[in-house]
């Protein structure tokens, strides 16, 4: 079987910078409060009109395709990871195909949130290995800002997220010593409601059990109601403590799984690029693995959590800054809603 490699990378972040101080205009918070809990200093928000999850993906994709030294016409499959698509349906994959004026290629949409890019990369790797496709465009793109509660009620969630897009062009590797060595995917739906956007949806489920003032008539099984707007049910919900507790366990586990699969040790890692969920989580994982600062790349301080886009943005930025060189061992790892988590080990 053929192995696959990342032949080109690109990313895009909106021009609009929102600092922690800017958020104090909308909610009861402070720069110190946000930095202490998340490590975030600022984030980017897309234009309310004109910029969408797809348009940001277009910018990132064009760069990735150019850096892979191919044309748009050479792309034969798209895998698009996002939790914030332009439409409830269809998915953003077909919109990207249309905007790039591609031929009639297949487009697959991935809904694995923070782990989305890892899942998409793993799928692309399998398609390349079997010879089904030769040039796969893998994209993670998010426009969170349109669906956040920027009042004090929603600050625990809304201060964390930002907008942006990242893309990678996956091709067969030309030699046997480089490329994606392995990928490892996991899930545990027991915690599905602890980090979720429950509506629009077809079931209130456990969400309603903890909301005694919200009746089944008001919310259960409804698509959108005025009560959902009033009660805040249409905004994302996160049990931050539960997410943190699981993340600091599953991150190191899945990284070690990838290393052990390839008979490597944590000392062999040249660069770990974790999903940019929370700087405290990244620092905890770094400490638990005994990695030095130069072995872990973080950019959440200036972009916030861009969910499916965070790893490709960080990976591209690290590569542009010369932190990744040919022959380096690069590990990607993510944990997020579902819960889902995964890792990929790459010999650059």
Offer a few descriptive terms.
348 residues, Peroxisomal Thiolase, Chain A, domain 1, 3 domains, five-stranded mixed β-sheet, 22% strand
Low-confidence stretches: none
Q: What value does the Rg take, in angstroms?
A: 20 Å
- For the record, give the distance between the C-alpha atoms at the N and C termini, rounded to a whole number: 19 Å
Strand order of the largest sheet: 1-7-6-4-5
Helix-strand topology string: EEHHEHEHEHEHEEEHHEHEHHHEE
Overview of the molecule:
- The chain is α/β, with parallel strands linked by helices and 348 residues long.
- It has three domains: 4-172, Thiolase/Chalcone synthase (Peroxisomal Thiolase, Chain A, domain 1, 3-Layer(aba) Sandwich), CATH 3.40.47.10; 179-190 and 238-347, Peroxisomal Thiolase, Chain A, domain 1, CATH 3.40.47.10; 198-234, no CATH class.
- The chain has twelve helices and 13 strands.
- The protein has helices spanning 20-23, 31-38, 53-67, 92-99, 116-130, 155-158, 206-209, 226-231, 240-261, 279-289, 300-303, 310-320; strands at residues 4-12, 16-19, 42-45, 77-81, 106-110, 136-142, 164-172, 179-187, 195-196, 237-238, 271-274, 329-336, 340-347.
- The strands form four sheets. A five-stranded mixed beta sheet has the order 1-7-6-4-5, sandwiched between helices. Strands 8-13-12-11 form a four-stranded mixed beta sheet, with helices on both faces.
- Helix 9 packs parallel to helix 10.
- The longest helix has 22 residues, at 240-261.
- The protein starts with a strand and ends with a strand.
- 46% of the residues are buried.
- The mean pLDDT is 93.
